Amino acid sequence: MVLCFNSVYFSYPQSIEPVLRDMSLEFHDDWTGVTGDNGAGKSTFLMLAAGILEPQSGNISPAALSGPAGGAVAAAAGSGSGAASVAAAGTRGLYCPQRTDQVPEGWEDFFFDGGGSLMSRLGIKADWPYRWESLSHGERKRLQLGIALWRQPELLLIDEPTNHLDREAKALIGSALESYSGIGLLVSHDRALLDRLCGQCLFIRRGRAMLRPGGISRGLAEEEREAREGRRQRALLTRERDRLAAAAEDRRRVVEGSKNRLSKKNLKPGDSDARGKINLARLSGKDRAGADQYKRMENRLAGLEKTLAAAAVPPSRKQGLTLLTERGKMDRIALIPAGSILLGGEGVPGGRLLSFPELLIRPGDRIALTGPNGAGKSSLVRHIVKQIPSRLLYIPQEISAGEGQAALENMREETEKDRGEILARFSRLGSDPGLLLQSRLPSPGEIRKLLIARGVFSQPAIIIMDEPTNHLDLSSIRLLEELLAEVPCALLLVSHDEAFLAALTGREWHISGGMLTMG
Hints:
By secondary structure, this protein is an alpha/beta fold. It has 16 helices and 20 strands. The chain has helices at residues 42-50, 107-112, 116-122, 137-151, 167-178, 191-197, 216-261, 272-284, 286-311, 377-386, 401-412, 416-428, 433-438, 444-455, 474-486, 498-504, and strands at residues 3-10, 20-27, 30-36, 57-61, 88-89, 94-96, 155-159, 183-187, 198-205, 208-213, 334-336, 339-343, 352-356, 359-361, 366-370, 392-395, 462-466, 490-494, 507-512, 515-518. The strands form 5 sheets. The chain has a 7-stranded mixed β-sheet, sandwiched between helices. Helix 15 (474-486) links the parallel strand 17 and strand 18 (490-494).
């Protein structure tokens, strides 16, 4: 099988600019990484490939497939931002979205009709579907991917598979995905996974796509090399343009002087000597040659301006963000008494207790909360958040589609001044405010950036983020890291991104076996 995009164009009705334009590509059996800024159209690209969406012009072939992936479409397509929450079978392939809100379809067959080897490989337990609400999102993702791999589709499309996963689970997922032998399209910001799996990477930028060989590290290096060369060539063209413009201006003055010198307009009627000299100068052709040279300079200058315009890159947005935070003046932000919480809530089968000592959070503390999937990190964070009544910016691990839409609508209802400031901060986190305003449902990464941009108005004394790098593209993770490194307020970060935590935190709270210990 070969998947072909032929001059594909796609735009949502509410969008000013197309999501994808004139895309012509071929994909063969192997993994292809898909990367781009949040909101660039990565999820839309996957849904087009799967056959959940169809292009407005151009075509994607094959038009339809038989077999496990050819069932009814079960996805909602809003803004291409992962609106579907369960694995969805399109007309061409099987799509696994970012969200894990619902139990994946077909789980009964998976458990009772041959999914045992994948269950063992991915550490999936038989009771997970019955206590879905108590599962971590990493556990939910493992079941979603296990069912998708068990179906063995010819075309498998996966959106951010290692979000929410701890180190062990990431290794399990990577090993399982390596065994897939069809056409795989993988949206991820996990550089290690992309380098491990992918024979090529697709870079989506402002509706355009560039396919580069190798994993993400090789592709990014090549993109940067081309960008440096482009900047060098543009600088050379700009210098030549400026030099020619100065020379053309000098020549213009000479030509204007010649015109004045050869004009008979101000001669006295009887001044025959002066008229003769002017006639002789005109016959010599020297001044005409100067005028012709000036015209050639003008034509060449116009050509250079045209070349520069064609080579121009969109102006870079100012990035980075100063949060309006301050170090708390009190001696502590929170003191949570020692105790325990029930994981999963009352009445949940298999409910477990998480016990913890007295937890003190002081101004300026930078705390990493770590532990394996399902250990209770998010439950503890929610417990801590309830003990901090004010001056708190809390970004949870998962934000529902409804909450994302509400955040967007609330931003639109702000005063023009406040809305402008929010969008400016959103832009400095690496995303396009125009695309955000066009969307009906922001992508998960855009929702996080919007909540951060809004949250700065509260001047928080503490920022608590649960898996903040999930759903963010690589450049946005870097920008967020730079932002948080500069804030004076306290931080409590839950993450499996070890490099991110190492750069930002100095204390560790670790959960294992139902107990929290302090490092």
